[in-house]
Amino acid sequence: MNYESYFQQLREQHLEQLKQFLTIPSISALSEHKQDMNEAAQWVAQKLKEAGMDIVEVHPTSGHPIVYAEHLHAPGKPTVLIYGHYDVQPVDPLHLWETPPFEPTIRGGKLYARGATDDKGQLFLHIKAVEALLRQEGELPVNVKFCIEGEEEISSPSLPAFMKTNEEKLATDVVVISDTSLLEKGKPAISTGLRGLCSLEVAIQTANTDLHSGTYGGGVPNALHALIELLASLHDDKGRITVEGFYEGVPELSAAMREEFAKQQFNEEKLQNHLGLDALYGEEGYTFVERTGARPTLELNGVYGGFQGEGTKTVIPKEAHAKITCRLVGSQDPVATLERISAHLHTHVPTGAKLTVTPGEKARAFNMDPSHPVLQTAADAYEEVYGTRALFTKDGGSIPIVETFSRVLSAPVVMMGFGLPDENLHAPNEHFNLENFDKGLLTIVAFLKRL
Amino acid sequence: MNYESYFQQLREQHLEQLKQFLTIPSISALSEHKQDMNEAAQWVAQKLKEAGMDIVEVHPTSGHPIVYAEHLHAPGKPTVLIYGHYDVQPVDPLHLWETPPFEPTIRGGKLYARGATDDKGQLFLHIKAVEALLRQEGELPVNVKFCIEGEEEISSPSLPAFMKTNEEKLATDVVVISDTSLLEKGKPAISTGLRGLCSLEVAIQTANTDLHSGTYGGGVPNALHALIELLASLHDDKGRITVEGFYEGVPELSAAMREEFAKQQFNEEKLQNHLGLDALYGEEGYTFVERTGARPTLELNGVYGGFQGEGTKTVIPKEAHAKITCRLVGSQDPVATLERISAHLHTHVPTGAKLTVTPGEKARAFNMDPSHPVLQTAADAYEEVYGTRALFTKDGGSIPIVETFSRVLSAPVVMMGFGLPDENLHAPNEHFNLENFDKGLLTIVAFLKRL
């Protein structure tokens, strides 16, 4: 049976299995989901066993477990390490979901659930592609290893140490990751760059208690005023980041890179309309793909302080908080960046406010040369299935572990994404377009056979 | 029996009754407390009946009920209308309360509960003072009316209409209100001014969904960035409000007013230490009492948007919110002020952000001449009980209805406060110092007898 018929025949069964996977609320950031994390890891291990992997191991870590599997019966052939993650982002604001995030629902050819595309859906494709090859051919065209973690959404704190300890076990010729996107429907892409990431939390405290805005208003510091003044100082009126030294290590965009970006023929107006925006926004002198692919950011992800309930409360809040992440490019150093931001905040903190800065995640940006043969083989596989050759892009997101894989295992990393850019990753109503579910399975099979 | 002995004898019983009153969570701002509001109104009505008032009525309104009572058997004597409110502020952040807000607890001579001082505790003093006069003398030295509402903390939306409809019923020679503070322990004060108030809510919307900060970060507007930029534009770096025309109607401080303020000998350093502040803060060229008594404010009471949970969420929020109140002085017009702020916000809203401004409460400032005889009589009553004459002050808070009382009933308003400035009004651990519970009862009796 050809692979198209094979996958068609098993489509309902595969979707039912994926739905089952998606019902597990494996939110790595929230400690109350500890048990769900174990359940999701066990689910992945079970499916790898059913697929025919020889060895399947669930490794406990100080955080969430890592699932490892191998099938090494192709002597003389390359080894492929498939990476993915079974953890998902938090789901709030919950009221904006049309169907509950952990009750997977298919509507209009799309599968809606938290993790549908990031990354449970895409990870699932690899398990089913390997299973298909084994069932159809009785063997695999290459040696295959899986390394599936549960901490990608919290910056993979356990995986680097696991990688170092198990360097030999994980040794490979190529790492394959499906956690990125096509350019748009029908336009495949292979990401050759990822932005780095660093995160921090900022807390302002003023008085030792909330105060009445009548009795004290105008005479004491207000934690929200101090925080807003401080946060506003981080960008100038053109949206450029004002932190001293922030842009150190950011490469200037060469004419060649601008040309590569321009090849995507990205439709900014279409995006603007799709997102219901009056205007896109960003650094002057750059297009949207350049801004998101090759420029760093300093972004407020959450700000809160004072009264949030119904009605009015005439209070001067004693504390206020902000959550910030930066996307990094080129050789920007996440540790130095966090230090620079902290120094900026401490220099600018207004009179009467006490500042606490808590640094968080740290990951460098990653870049690969598109001319590498394994990337060209991946582009061939896409062309076979999609009828159009994959473009080489830079992805604005961060998969902090990619840079570590490439460094520790000294192997090229192929980012074969099957998501779409508008599938609400990290937002309400995340979904996975099933056209790419079908084509993804075939593309992975084609890639493994061509290696 | 003299009144000191009388109140001493009944002290435990009175405190038990007040505690009972304080267990009712009558938060007017939250619609879920509708039933508690009725219960609190009925409690007040019952206690007025027990005190010996002839007529006691509970008037339904479109909001929360108004309790009216009268005892008019002193022909030829003046009529006193006692105003108070049985509603209280919301209680969050709840985790900062040492004992639950609606489980009144006495610790170190202070009664802790939401509403202990603002205004259930102070209102209760008047009921018990009138009861004492009737029991001890068999009659009242003046004609007494009570008008007790349940919407003071939400700016009294129903009372002005009630006042107009019942102008004759409420007709009086003097209005007495106990909803303000002594200057400090042992230093009584009569407030001859209150700041006005206006409130608004600000909402920013950018995209139609929350977005992934990797895929979109740097290329689309972030609702929090837009809100922070907008809010930061409301003050200059000296803390002055930058809204055009905002200071119209704000009187310059005369040398005489500055002298009156200086009489308070307010200890700014003591306040700063008490509040755990590194520094007080406010407009240059003014003292703390001038800033809070005679200068307007534009204050953030709440700001929120994006992720507030544990850990990191790499999200670009699609919406962000702020709650703002202004304290007004002199002849500042609350309606015009709201219009000016709205115009400023609409002028400064950043590219790509949609702005919604929702105006709320509106109340003018109030001022009285300290030389008025009824204020002098009140000062005499304080002197009799506290051994020191009350100072005439300006209060930074707003009791929006005071200006309405004075205008509609054409009567002087005596603000005889028995709270203390550090009793955590509107904040966690609100309390009432029982020294002023005891002295307050005696002062009210002395005042009514002297009129």
Automatic annotation (TrEMBL), chains A, B:
GO biological process, one term: proteolysis
SUPFAM superfamilies: Zn-dependent exopeptidases
Keyword GTP-binding: no
Keywords: Hydrolase, Metal-binding, Protease
MF term (GO), any: peptidase activity
Residue ranges constituting the Peptidase M20 dimerisation domain according to the UniProt record: 193-350
Keyword Metal-binding: yes
Record Pfam families: M20_dimer, Peptidase_M20
The organism's place on the tree of life at top rank: Bacteria
Record-given protein name: Peptidase M20
